[in-house]
Amino acid sequence: MKRLIFLFLIFSINSRLVMADSAVSDSLKTVADSAYAQENFEKAAKYYLRIARMGESAAVCYNLGNCYYRLDDMARAVLWYERASILSPGDEDIRFNLDMARSKTIDRVIPRHEFFFVTWYRSMINWMSADSWARLSIALFLLSLASLALYIYARRMGLRKAGFTLAVVFLLMTLVGNLCAWSQSLRLSQRDGAIVMASSAAVKSTPSASGSDLFVLHEGTRVVIRDNSLSDWAEVELADGKQGWIEKRQIEII
Q: For 33, 46, 51, 80, which has the most beta carbons within 10 A of its beta carbon?
């Protein structure tokens, strides 16, 4: 009995904390939206940032990207648009604004050629978020069960054949949906992308200030972190395949 009372108290406290956080978030959003409407983008960014620290959402990250874009801070605009894109990969407005912000950065990195299948697979994964893929997979699995029931209980041979075929198709689609959901969740949990935040950053041949300069990157450029094991340096790779070491203080993980 005491244990049940204790669990009830913990649940009540957690519920109140969630409600309090939600109320604070709504209040901050009201102030941020008002500041944005008045074109006070610096103030709006300040409040949207406080909301984002309480819990990321695609809408808040997108609004932050818009604020920094209007403030002509392209590095932070790209950073927050990238974060919004991870949370809502199929959003065309986010993708459009991200491309706009990227077009105003200095570096022009031409991605390496990749097989058509790889490009198609990436596009399919980014069609929806992890939660959306998971919901679709559940719906497809239920359809496969319904088709299997049709195969088992239908009396006509034509219906049984159709039920069997549909069950196999829906089951395969369920597996693909689960794979896409897993890929998206992995992308969320293991963020290896980063944005250069310094106005210019020298990429070194070794993780040392005395290493030779390989090339220079500028703010807003996206890199992929390949080795993050050192405390002050990270090995990064560009979309065109170039690699080198950069100081961690000059980049921010998406």
A: 80
